[in-house]
Amino acid sequence: MKTITLVLFLLLVVVNTAMAFGINPYHNIVKKLVRNNFKAIEEHRPEEIMSGVSDKTLEHTFAGDNSLSGTRHDKESLLRWFKRINTVLPELKVKITDIRVKGGPGNTLVIARWTATCTLLNGEAYENKGVHFITLKWGKAVKFDVYENTKVVSHGLDVQFEAGIKEAKAPKIES
After folding, report:
1. Tens digit of pLDDT for each residue in 165-175?
2. Which CATH class is domain 2-169?
3. Whole-number Å distance between alpha carbons of 22 and 80
4. What is the pTM assigned to this prediction?
5. Where are the domains of the chain?
């Protein structure tokens, strides 16, 4: 019992010291998780992301009016959406330019700014800057609002469709 008490005391000291210097261990864990999830998208591993998504409450909104836009409210639709990204932009890379985390485990807001790039099938360079606003509750994502240059997305999807990726013009995945 003394060992457990000592370990908890030392952990509390370390956390409080880190926070005194502007380092929040919880926020650092969340930032790493967000980076890993963007990497999973790049590496065509969308199933890995789904373990961090709420089974109960979910809202995923992607701005625009194209095959990637719309709102999803269930994990099955969200997984299909992630798979669609991998189909229509198979070489997509996402560079995180900034991540901000606010709040604690019961209500966390993550703001992730990024630049997405790839080469479209016609050889044209694709580059789009955007931001995710992600709400986490007790370790599970419950809300995603994704904003990007919708004209760039639509143009990229048009190019991919003309090159033979028919899903680039498929109906929105909404639920």
Report:
1. 999 999 999 99
2. alpha beta
3. 39
4. 0.84
5. 2-169
